[in-house]
Amino acid sequence: MFPSIPLFAVVSAPFKRSQLGLFQGKMKQFGNSVPNSKHKTRRSWLPNVHSQRLFSDTLQRFIKIKVTARALKTIKKHGNIDSYLLNMKPDLLGWEGMRLRVLVRETQAATTGGMQAAATGETVATVS
Questions:
Q1: Residue 49 in contact with residue 66, Cβ under 8 Å?
Q2: pLDDT grade, residue 1 (50/70/90)?
Q3: Separation CA 104–CA 23 (nearest Å)
Q4: Which 3 state secondary structure label does DSSP give 29?
Q5: What is the pLDDT of residues 90-111, one digit of tens each?
Q6: Residues near 115 by Cβ (< 8 Å), separated by ≥ 6?
Q7: Is 60 exceeded by the pLDDT of residue 11?
């Protein structure tokens, strides 16, 4: 009777903006601004987010994505965006990171399947 709703649309996220990029668990933080008069007022701090184009070796194209400075440091530590996506915990990747992880895994599986078939002399069926 009712259309089925995907699970990720139902799950609430405390900081929805972090689900649309690689934020590596960084969230909006809250606290007080305290001047000399000690009159406290509420304020918030946003993560250090930049829009970057990162080259994926597996996909052979640039990926434009919002990424925090901390995630950029971790990507540099892992070597490239592909190994970062494949090795990080799912809860640190968010929705966009998991979407890219699936895309990279599918592309790797397709290319390794083609390489294995070429090595054994089999023909790979392609759908046009």
A1: yes
A2: very low
A3: 19
A4: strand
A5: 888 888 999 999 999 999 999 8
A6: none
A7: no
Q: For tokens 């007080």, what's the residue? A: 32
Q: Using alpha carbons only, how large is the chain's radius of gyration in Å?
A: 20
Residue 74 structure tokens: 């971790």
Backbone phi, then psi, for 5, in 5-degree steps?
Answer: -105, 130
Helices (H), the chain: 7-10, 69-78, 81-87, 90-120
Helix, strand, coil abundance in the chain, percent, nearest 5: 45, 20, 35
Contacts of 14 by beta carbon, 8 Å cutoff, 6+ apart: 27
Q: Which tokens go with 30?
A: 């809250």
Buried b (16+ CB within 10 A) or exposed e, 13-28: eeeeebbebbbbbbee
